[in-house]
Amino acid sequence: MTIWNELAGLDFTLRTVDANGIPTRALQAGSGDEAVVFLHGTSGHLEAFARNIAAHAPHYQCHAIDMLGHGYTGKPDYPYEIPRYVQHLVDYLDAVGIERAHLVGESLGGWVAAHLASEQPDRVLSLQLLAAGGTVANPTIMERIKTSTTNAVRSDDIELTRARLRLLMHDPADATEELVEVRHRIYHQPDFVANIHNLLSLQEMEIRQRNLLRPERLAKIQAPTLVVWGHENPFGDVPEAKKMAEDIPGAQLQLYAECGHWPQHEQAASYNPLSLDFLAKASAQAKASA
To answer: Per the confidence metrics, is the pTM higher than 0.90?
Structure first.
């Protein structure tokens, strides 16, 4: 199944949005009164949500973006710490006229989304944290991310990109050849190569520690929250997910067997209806309290 087949029959736009001076690649689709913004993980790109857009677009305005320094979005020369990502996200929301959004964040995207929800609750209608990072600093996992990504970026050998993508999946078949080729091309843009140290700055212990989602920050989140996790997540065990859900008031937890670090992709057939049900309830809650 290719990305084009996943989007077949769907009217969508792939465009570059000026987010306060940062050219930002965005896939936009759907309609409705409310927006859902999809945020990928470290060294990822908007294609991470190719299996989700068509299911959500009949009900919501959908925006899948390449985050700061990622994909085909601008890559300024400074370390990409969480406040920088948050500001870029807010700038994108402002640029496209979204006052409040449902945020769906995978890995790094969840880290960024949770940080925004804790600081600017008026911008967030609901929060989905899919294998979200940011609550722990495990040096072994940080080194695995840094080394596997750097090796794939510094070498032209597509096998290293394939290995980096397969690291995310329980079933290697979910790392489709199309995704491998998309990521390999992204990894070898000159500005991506030049800024890989900035993109991986959160894998440095001192930098990561000052950006962590600590329990007191998670406790400030007011938006309805869904935590989704895979039992075979290579970057975090189930207790990490349970602790995250416990620290966020009223959060719901969904665990998937035979699932790694991309639950929205690996378990799309189950995740999409789960997400839509959660979004509908969050929307009703927001309207009732308005």
So the answer is: yes
Q: What is the CB-side half-sphere exposure of residue 107 using CA atoms within 13 A?
A: 25
For residue 259, give the 3-state DSSP assignment: coil
Catalytic residue chosen out of the listed positions 45, 184, 261, 265: 261
Q: Which residues contact 190 (CB under 8 A, 6 or more apart)?
A: none
Tell me the pLDDT tens digit for each residue of 15-63.
999 999 999 999 999 998 999 999 999 999 999 999 999 999 999 999 9
3 state DSSP class of 102: strand
261 part of the active site: yes
pLDDT digits (tens, 9 = 90+) for 76-112: 999 999 999 999 999 999 999 999 999 999 999 999 9
Show the CA angle centred on residue 150, arms to residues 128 and 67, nearest 5°.
Answer: 35
CB proximity list for 224: less than 8 A, separation 6 or greater: 126, 127, 250, 252, 278, 281, 282, 285
Domain boundaries, the chain: 3-289
3-state secondary structure of 279: helix
Q: What is the CATH number of domain 3-289?
A: 3.40.50.1820
